[in-house]
Amino acid sequence: MRALPLRVRPLAAETVTGFLGRLATANSLTPRDLRLHVTDLAGLSPSRPNLERAAAWTERLGALAPGHFDADARRNAMYVRCQHYGWQPALCKRCGYTQAPRSACRRCADGDQTSVRSRGGAVCNRHRRWHLDAADVDLASFPEYAHAERCLSGTLWKRGVGLATGELQLAATLIRCWMTDERPDARIEDRMSALEVGTLDADAVLLAAYPEVVRLATVLTDLSFASYLLSPRFSLAEQVWALEAAVITVMRGSTTARLHDVAEKIVTRGKAAVETAFGMRQNAHNKRPATLEKALVASSQRHRSCLLRHLSTVRIQILPYQPGLAVPRSRVLDRHRPLPDLVMVDA
Q1: What is the pLDDT of residue 343?
Q2: 122 vs 106, 125, 260, CA distance in Å?
Q3: What distance in Å separates the CA atoms of residue 167 and residue 178, rounded to the nearest whole number?
Q4: What Å distances lie between residue 78 and 86, 112, 140, CA to CA?
């Protein structure tokens, strides 16, 4: 099969679906017709085709090197905690996965609309644009967004933090609760005015306070801080105050009653998840304790508490073992993708 006459340069970790759409536009075809053609070539179900499985045919049509999409996915894979690396953050070839598709920067795609799975977040540092959810917001006047993006794609990425793993959502929830009762300082108000942010919903807070959200997530996922925050060694009041202090330090303000309530819920839920992990046994057929690193990963999934993935088993106090729940099989934990925390916040 011959390649199409006009070629398109693929973006980093661009999805097969997005690349086919741009390839069709460049060759004066409709994206729908080209996708239907590839669906037929790959023998996919026409009702709900998963074009990511047609990477080989797409590489032929786009004159790409064989295995381009697989190699690109490996370069942009998430750090995961799995059995192959002792449940420590690592780039595992077996268990690694890429982020969920998100809209790409329109400037990088020459004005076309496409989706990528690349490492990083919502900011294009090349063009200084906010591109999440197909937006195209100019950030040239706010260099702090570029610093935050580098932190997310560097330090936080190696901790297994992505756009949808829960840590950024947790930080955004805390900042949103603080901003509900406390007036932000001039720098954030200037951003909200320039970016035309009027409401304080989850998406608006992420846009207006993205640098602060990333900075707070960096603090929360620090090994020492997370271990102090959820350790049974310290009292709940001390740990809640530490979480509040992290928020008000980043936001340069004072604590509020709403922030205190949400911080208390987060710490209480996290400590309950840690206690569950301490009591997990190897399987349903014996009562021997499970490996603590594995138990923490399992409990973080069970309780939807993302901070458990960032604890140090050396720094937290180990409680006396009382047999409880059986830890799931390793392959079950490996298949599970991190989800945002279940923190109930009143609207």
Answers
A1: 67
A2: 12, 10, 29
A3: 17
A4: 16, 26, 28
Percent above pLDDT 90 for the chain: 78
Instruction: For residue 129, give the amino acid letter.
Output: R
pLDDT > 90? residue 180: no
Place of tokens 């998840």: 273
Q: Where are the domains of the chain?
A: 1-75, 175-335
pTM of the model: 0.92
C-alpha to C-alpha distances, 75 to 60, 79, 99, 117, 131, nearest whole angstrom: 21, 11, 12, 11, 21
Return the SS3 of 282. strand
Residue 347: which pLDDT band, with cuts at 50, 70 and 90? Answer: very low
CB atoms within 10 A of CB 171: 27
- Locate 74 and state its tokens: 């490996």
DSSP assignment of 22-79 equals HHHHHTT--HHHHHHHHHHHHT--SSS--GGGGHHHHHHHTTPPTTHHHHHHHHTPPP
Rounded CA-CA distance 331/211 in Å is 36
Report the alpha-carbon distance of residue 87 to residue 12 in Å, rounded. 28
- Please indicate whether residue 160 or residue 199 has the higher confidence score (pLDDT): 160
The one-letter amino acid at 164: A
Note the Cα 188 to chain centre separation in Å: 23
For 192-218, the DSSP string reads HHHTT----SHHHHHHHTHHHHHHHHH
317-319-324-325 Cα dihedral, nearest 10 degrees: 0
Virtual torsion, Cα 195, 261, 340, 122, nearest 10 deg: 20
d(CA 222, CA 213): 14
Alpha carbon distance 226, 270 (integer Å)? 10
Question: From residue 337, how far is each of 89, 219, 340 by CA, in Å?
Answer: 14, 22, 10
Q: Please give the average per-residue pLDDT across 108-131, as a whole number.
A: 94
